[in-house]
Amino acid sequence: MNDFGLILIGLILCTTTISSLQCNHLPLQQRKVIENSLQLLDKMGRKFPQQCLREKMSFRFPEQVLKPRQREAVKMAIEEIFHHIFYIFSKNLTVAAWDGTALEQFQNGLYQQIEQLEACVIKKQTHYFRNKEVNRLKLKKYFQKIDCFLKDKQHNLCSWEISRAEMRRCLQLIDKVVRRLNN
């Protein structure tokens, strides 16, 4: 074997070891990302506008998707949730009048966490497939309600503020689950 082959093998082993170490620290990283995301959600906007109080909406987060017995299934659900949050906060934000820097940092943090989860979560298509699909559909329905609400309200300020408050609640639920997984 030539020197290039040895270097290549060394890089592969090093990358695998680093990736494995990052995955071992995933719950701690998730807690930090969620904590940071919650701070950025607060920083993005001001206090909840008084005129929006009567427009409150109950979206009913499907909490059972975060309660499966398998740790891997919970990670898959969290990854799915982050995808949906990223999607919602990536469009039609012109009316929201939020702090653009905080919004961008929020989006970047979500994207990085999605990438990390995708790299670490073992996507077993057999054992977790059925449970994953049921949870995916529940989450899709939940986030579609939010998306439809935004569209029905023509992405007005109150609809964004209500959605921001709902995402805050969603992230707090994830944080509670991640903390429980660490114990």
From TrEMBL:
Domain of life from the UniProt record: Eukaryota
Q: Which InterPro entries match?
A: 4_helix_cytokine-like_core (IPR009079), Interferon_alpha/beta/delta (IPR000471)
Molecular-function GO terms, alphabetical: cytokine activity; cytokine receptor binding
Q: Keyword annotations for this protein? A: Antiviral defense, Cytokine, Disulfide bond, Secreted, Signal
Q: What is its main location?
A: secreted
One Pfam family per UniProt: Interferon
Localization per record: Secreted
Keyword Magnesium listed? The answer is no
Keyword Disulfide bond listed? The answer is: yes
Signal sequence interval, chain numbering: 1-20
UniProt record, GO biological process: defense response to virus; immune response
A GO term from the CC aspect? extracellular space
Similarity section? Belongs to the alpha/beta interferon family.
According to its UniProt entry, the function of this protein is described as: Has antiviral activities.
Q: What is this protein called?
A: Interferon epsilon-like
